[in-house]
Amino acid sequence: MRCHSTSTFPTHPFLVVLIVIVAHLGIVHAQGGSRTFSTRPLRGVFRVAGPPQPALAVLQGNAVLPCDIRPPGPNDSAILVIWYKNDVTPIYSYDMRGKHSEQSSHWKDKEYLNERAYFSTVTEPAALNIDHVEERDEGEYRCRVDFTKSPTRNSRIHLTVVVPPHKPNIIDERGKTVPTVAGPYEEDGDMRLTCLVSGGRPEPTVLWWRGETLLESKDGPGEFPALRRNILVVSKLSRSDLHAVFTCQATNNNISQPLSASVAIEMHLRPLTVSILSSEHAPLSADRKYEIACMTAGSRPPAKLFWYLDGKRLDNFTVEVSQDGNTTTSTLTLKPTLLDHDKVLTCRAENSRVRDGVEEDTWKLNVWFVPILHLELGSNMNPDDIEEGDDVYFECKVLANPWPYKVVWRHNGNVIQNKAKDGVIVQQYDLALRNVSRSQAGNYTCIASNTEGDGYSNSVELKIMYKPICVSDQKRIYGVARHEDARIICQVEAYPPPDSFRWAFNNTEEMVDVPQARYKSSTRHTQSVLTYRPVTEMDYGTVLCWASNTAGQQKNACVFHIIPAGKPESPYNCTLTNQTTDSLSVACTAGFDGGQPQHFLLEVFDQHTGLLQANVTSRENAAASFTVRGLEPGKVLNMVLYAVNAKGRSDPTLLEGFTLKIAEKQTGSPVPFEITPLLGVLIGVVTALLLVTTTILGALKMRSDRKAGRPDDLPLKKVSAPTAEDLYDADDRNPDVVPTNKAVKW
Ligand SMILES: *[C@@H]1O[C@H](CO)[C@@H](O)[C@H](O)[C@H]1NC(C)=O
Ligand SMILES: *[C@@H]1O[C@H](CO)[C@@H](O)[C@H](O)[C@H]1NC(C)=O
Ligand SMILES: *[C@@H]1O[C@H](CO)[C@@H](O)[C@H](O)[C@H]1NC(C)=O
Ligand SMILES: *[C@@H]1O[C@H](CO)[C@@H](O)[C@H](O)[C@H]1NC(C)=O
Ligand SMILES: *[C@@H]1O[C@H](CO)[C@@H](O)[C@H](O)[C@H]1NC(C)=O
Ligand SMILES: *[C@@H]1O[C@H](CO)[C@@H](O)[C@H](O)[C@H]1NC(C)=O
Ligand SMILES: *[C@@H]1O[C@H](CO)[C@@H](O)[C@H](O)[C@H]1NC(C)=O
Ligand SMILES: *[C@@H]1O[C@H](CO)[C@@H](O)[C@H](O)[C@H]1NC(C)=O
Ligand SMILES: *[C@@H]1O[C@H](CO)[C@@H](O)[C@H](O)[C@H]1NC(C)=O
Ligand SMILES: *[C@@H]1O[C@H](CO)[C@@H](O)[C@H](O)[C@H]1NC(C)=O
């Protein structure tokens, strides 16, 4: 529309001149009018009531200058509107006289307003709109309206052009421009931000905002004209201020958008919490590998984690930082030893960027381990001077966590029971042995058990000194011929080993010490060997031996009997221990060996033919036992046994035996048949007859055999022999014993 009107505006210079003249006439007319209607003295070229109306426009914005064009009376209308700037220069006109041709004409000062202005009559009131307001647009404007009937009306408007300030600039404590992020600041620290605003007319107001909240701030001293300084101080910053946005706003009008600058706050934060994540700080087992986690939160930048054990730095751990950097987790690999018990494990979170940025959590380790034991003899005891009858104490020293629930004592591997009656007193960590005997010598250990396992102590050997005593199981009777050397061995038990031996000879008349040259003693083997040669009858008798050690001299001598050497006694108490089709086993008890080593012979004869079937030797000393193989089945056999030594062969001992028949051996399962009463009677009668016949025949045969006197016909007889001691206590002879030389007559 504006375009249209512009195009219809007369542009010819002549027309312009004409309009100006017409306008002038109008003024004259008006002057005449004022002279006619006004009572006020003439003062100037026109008359306007009151001060000018104010109007505001922002630089580069839009100015609206209102002008009432409504006629004051009826049947009247405005015909011409002219705008003057500063009362003199017409700058815009609007002519409505060609209205009937629908062609209202706008004219504007090309140089001054150009295309920026347009007078709009559609608004109420009508107004001159100016676009892209410039600073020079400020000033007083006059609007003159001419009506068809009414006198001309003038109205004055003062346009103020507001110049907005430049965009604020935020400066930090160090005087540096902050583009987007201020800081980092410390917790509890102060923040001081300065907002610098230049330009602006009228002088702008500078405000600080945090979000929607207006903050208190102070104006600082301005430097050169139109530079404003506004200082915001936030003291005692807290965690909640992290990433808070502070905005500085500068404004000098309520038309245009205020100009602002914003900064976000960056902060360095202390670690807030740190904790060792272990379930209830449970006990640890020694020498097992554990993974212990520690977590810290709240530090910015992320905290570093370190581990210490009693102040000593540990290195074996991993660190992981959460995605948001708020939490740091560390996992320590720890293999505690029992020495770490009661040590303090520390997890330390450190943020070196802040003051006091250290936070710690500690854990006093409870390390469980298998008991460690040390066994020793009571402190007042000399382990090398314990004799039979002494009292002995052991102490089991324990290092354990948790404390043992059980302590066991062992002697040579066998558990010791508390037997106060026998002087064995077991008390947890102490063992007392009253009136020790040599059987209590040996190795002692204590064993303590806790939940981690069984701990074994060292082994302590208890050595009990005792006087030598005779070894009970040794050869006591030596059969020696005259002018023959006998080696008599005297064996003793003793601790410590004997340091000397003494020998003596006792016959019926006297007792004499044997000169040292006659015997050799070996203290290592705790024995002494006497070489003895009987020359006369008087040299037979008893030889005695005593040993001595630091504990003293042997109380009861070892007694050896020297007898004239003779043939051994026959084996006796013989039994058939096994019988098969082709073998026989015989076992007998050996008789006295005549004082010399003996062995045994077994000769087996066929009873019928009298032929030698086998001839076997047994080298065993104590018992005569034989197994004869390769015999014919179903044979009745006579067996002859002898004991043999250097002096000769004993009297024979006779036995009868037989090998099983093949058929006998093969008797399978019996054929079952029914025994009728008649059959039963028959069997009874036949059996009775057979028995009688056999008995009679047997008796007859035995008698005839004895008369014949053949070796294979020897009667089967049990033969006993006297024991060695019987030889010397003839009165105390076993009544069962039949003297060997009378046992069997050939
Ligand atoms: C207005 O003018 C018209 C004719 O032009 C006339 O008829 C009318 O009466 C006038 N009204 C007044 C109030 O003068
Ligand atoms: C602008 O401020 C003036 C006074 O300062 C007031 O009269 C006017 O209503 C305000 N305009 C708006 C749009 O707030
Ligand atoms: C960091 O962790 C702490 C503790 O869990 C929590 O209170 C805080 O809100 C967290 N901060 C952030 C920024 O996630
Ligand atoms: C750390 O732990 C790993 C895995 O448990 C182990 O292999 C390594 O020897 C340990 N290093 C040190 C120095 O203890
Ligand atoms: C010591 O033990 C021995 C046997 O071992 C016994 O004969 C003696 O009476 C005991 N002495 C005491 C004081 O108990
Ligand atoms: C006791 O221990 C010692 C040394 O280990 C060993 O030589 C000795 O034979 C042990 N004694 C017994 C009775 O086991
Ligand atoms: C020596 O022998 C005689 C008679 O046999 C005996 O009475 C005496 O006790 C013996 N002496 C010793 C010390 O054994
Ligand atoms: C005879 O021998 C039997 C078994 O072989 C044995 O039990 C018994 O003690 C022996 N008798 C004698 C006096 O040796
Ligand atoms: C008897 O001797 C035979 C053959 O030597 C053997 O197989 C069998 O086991 C022996 N029986 C007994 C009870 O020793
Ligand atoms: C059996 O053998 C021994 C020697 O080994 C011999 O002295 C003995 O005469 C033999 N007996 C017979 C009957 O041949």
UniProtKB/TrEMBL annotation:
Q: Which InterPro entries match?
A: CD80_C2-set, FN3_dom, FN3_sf, Ig-like_dom, Ig-like_dom_sf, Ig-like_fold, Ig_sub, Ig_sub2
Q: Which positions make up the signal peptide?
A: 1-30
The residues that cross the membrane are 678-700
Q: Does the keyword Hydrolase apply?
A: no
Top-rank lineage group of the source organism: Eukaryota
Q: Does the keyword Cell division apply?
A: no
Q: Where in the cell is it found?
A: Membrane
Q: Where is this region: Disordered?
A: 725-746
According to UniProt, the name of this protein is: Synaptogenesis protein syg-2 isoform X8
Q: Supply the source organism for this entry.
A: Cephus cinctus
